[in-house]
Design brief:
Layout: E1 12-18, E2 27-32, E3 35-38, E4 47-49, E5 56-62, E6 64-68, E7 76-82, E8 88-90, E9 94-102, E10 107-111
Amino acid sequence: MSKISFEDIGSLMATFYAHDGVQDGQVVKMTGNGTVGPCSAGDIFCGVAGMPRNGAVGVQVGGFVKVAATLPLSVGKVGLVADGKGGVKAGDGISVLVADVDTVEKTAVICL
């Protein structure tokens, strides 16, 4: 267990309409005006969805957040794209700070 925690540092949330299939904890992309949906592999994501309710969803668009990750992934400033399974993978996408990679849980802490 790490003695360092990045949980919720600088968290910035925004509310969007949610397309069908949006799930808590997955990366999402813009699909229309004020609307987000699930990402396919290689998509540029805009943030991480919270729990959808009544057709809307809070999306974390800034700050540190833990996401599922397709490995290998390194720490530092890294280009990331959606992996098509709700998480992220290395790719020619948005540049984010990867602060921690857990190879057992297959997660990463990123700063959006």
